[in-house]
Amino acid sequence: MVSFEHFSLRDMTDCSSALRKMGETAETMEAVAEKTVRYLYENIDDGKGDRACALVRLFKTHRMDELDAELREFALAQLGDYPGTPDMKCLVLLGTAGAKPQWNHRDQSAGHRAIPLPSPEFVRAFPMISMLFSQFGVEVHELLKPEPGLIMDMAQTSFNVFYVPQAAGSPYVPAQTDFVQPFAIKSVLGFGSVLPGGDLFAVILFSKIHIPRETAELIKPLALGVKVALLSTSGSKLLVR
């Protein structure tokens, strides 16, 4: 077990090594994602023996035409007047682990199973996603419609973490009344990267204890461990259910 309050370089090294191995026996990206969020949820404590996170999730962008009919319908229902196209990117929930039973099954997510990303303007309507892209150093228009020559540069870029030190009252953390307040969410931390094909993945942790900025900076290299694990299954078809 490691603690956000006393997260050390040794903790970062051990966690990164463990996350790299998540792809060794996994056949799909979803399997890697589920193992990743479960590991983080169960192995980060609050310094008193309890789990520090109320919820841990892993998202990855996918084209609309890579999703099954149910997920496509879910994404299209959120578009409103925006047209959906086969190559439109969606931010898909691949793995989830949390304190409530339904938070451990991605097909039970009420609003985050597949979030359509048709345009930078549409993304701005989701403050948390918009801020995540911004803090990662990703230009939204480049992610949604990447030029072939930019994909390699994007994949080789080292991105910053997504960090909200005080979740209560933050415009970047939604569901204040239904989630932040009842589950006493203190801070939010995310890390991720862009894969060689131009898709982005992000791991987001909702913590019940305050996460110091020093921990947020130190946790950044964990993205490489998750990236290695996801790439170990990149040749397999994404399974959606």
What does this structure look like?
This protein has 241 residues and is of the alpha+beta class. It has a single domain (2-231), classed as Beta-Lactamase, CATH 3.30.450. 35% of the residues lie in helices and 20% in strands. The protein is built from 10 helices and 8 strands. The strands form 2 sheets. The chain has a 6-stranded antiparallel β-sheet with strand order 5-4-3-8-7-6. Strands 1-2 form a two-stranded parallel sheet. Helix 1 runs parallel beside helix 10 and helix 2 runs antiparallel to helix 10 (222-231). It is globular and about 50 Å long. The protein starts with a strand and ends in a 10-residue tail after the last helix.
